[in-house]
Amino acid sequence: MSISKTLFLLFFIIQLQGSNVFCQQKKMTKEELAKQAEEAIIDGNKGLYEKSLVKSRILLNNAIANKDDYYTAKAYNNIASVFFEMNDIDNALLFFEKALSFAQKTNRNDIKNSIHNNLGNLYYFNKGAYKKGISHYLKSISYIDKKDTHEIALTKINIIWAYFASGEYDQGFPYLSYVNQYYKPEKKDKTNTIVVYTLNGMYYTHNKDFEKAEDYFKKAIELGIKEDEKLDLRFAYQEYIQFFCQTDNYKKAYETLRLYNNVVDQLNQIEKEKTVNLAGMNLHVDEYKRQIDKIGTEYKMKQQLLEMEQSRNKRVVSLMLLIFIIVFILLYFYYQNNKLKQENKLNDIQRKIQLNMINASIDGQESERKKIATFLHDNISAMLSSAGLHLNAFLKHNEIQSEEIIKTKEILKTAHDKVRDLSHELLPTLLVRFGLLYAIEDLCEKNSNSLIHFEFSSNIPIKKRYTEKFEIRIYFILSELFNNIIKHSQADKAIIILNETDGKLNISIRDNGKGFDTSKFNITEGFGLNRIRARIKKLKGTFSIKSKPDEGTVTKIKIPFPNK
């Protein structure tokens, strides 16, 4: 019987016996899982791949049964490592990724470090994906204990390799500086010292420092021959050949190439022996993979059945809880609804009281304005005018030019002008005599200056009159809005438009000022608009403001005409 058939039969018997034994035994303890994992790793390191795979499968089965994510990840990681050593890269990548998915569920950094390092090796050495390899190496370092400088140095060597292979020497140099310090002098392991010497040779060759580069290559080759490290020696010869090519020393390059080929031949012979030993295993790798997948599938099915059972058991409790929650929510909303109604009623009463107070205040102010304006105009202003006339008549008849009399005359004139202005401000004469439209036109002219211009437009005949009370209220509403524009808008132009439609007076005021965000500003509270809103509401009108930052503001008012 051939060696391959014998190995296959042996592997099949071991698999069968392992399955039977496992089915009969109870779940492994943590200690037993740890021992099984250690034995699987040792067998893999010795090249006993069949034994390692069998032990890893048993470990996987028990770890999944115990719901132990750490040892599940460890089992998948070892299985992937064996496939990696067998040069089955696709299966190795598949199981490394499975291992990582379970490792992420744990708080164990050692397994995360190992898996990321293995993935880095796979992507760099086997797939030539330098960026992905470096990414996994960096993640690996993040999980290494900072005190474990040896492990950090090993991973940084791989990072240097990947950076140099992709031509990014400057990116790799900081890591090279670290490992130079770590492996200086040769007191660490000789194998990695060979690699470090070779990497230094590569770096100085790239920087055209050929003297240093050659010195490092010679040290690497000398130590490689001494320690009989063929893999690292092959790497050193390969880069040394590149060095000679760059220095145009083709004779030395050819001599080194012969040495390189000798090492490669020896490594190929070792690889052939390894391939023969693995020939039997390659026949049943797919079967092993199916068994591994079956373990995961069976576990998932058991988990699904258990979850279905638990789900059924929870349904009654969930239903009762849902009914309770619904009843509670209904009662809560019923209570909140009643509470809200009561609060709304109270708020309505408060608003009405506040509105009545504002309206009473406005009515009182308008009444007082009218009384004071009338008193100032008809009495004080008249008396000051009369005093001025008498004084002028006295001066005309007596021809006395006294400084005190002249000052008195000026004081009387100033007092008369101020009383007249105050009277017009309290109740504009133009409004009383000629009506609202004349008064608004005059208001625009008075408020216009070099900083802002108020423009008035209306399709209503300018001589149109309304009730006195209506005109006074509209006038003071507009007066307050004008003040707001002047104080707050930073506009240089404002337009007021009046027209009549459907028995209503429509007022539109638009400015080109800075505007504001109405969603972030309570227009009922700002700029004294409470009084304006109250005035309009008393007139049974509507009031709206539209504004956006840097787009100005538009105010619209609609007020029905009063019954005459």
From TrEMBL:
GO terms for biological process: phosphorelay signal transduction system. This is histidine kinase. Keywords: Kinase, Membrane, TPR repeat, Transferase, Transmembrane, Transmembrane helix, Two-component regulatory system. InterPro entries: HATPase_C_sf, HATPase_dom, His_kinase_dom, Sensor_HK_TwoCompSys, TPR-like_helical_dom_sf, TPR_rpt. One of its GO terms (molecular function) is protein histidine kinase activity. The chain crosses the membrane at residues 316-335. SUPFAM superfamilies: ATPase domain of HSP90 chaperone/DNA topoisomerase II/histidine kinase, TPR-like. TPR repeats lie at residues 73-106, 194-227. It comes from Flavobacterium hydrocarbonoxydans. Pfam families: HATPase_c, TPR_8. It catalyses: ATP + protein L-histidine = ADP + protein N-phospho-L-histidine.
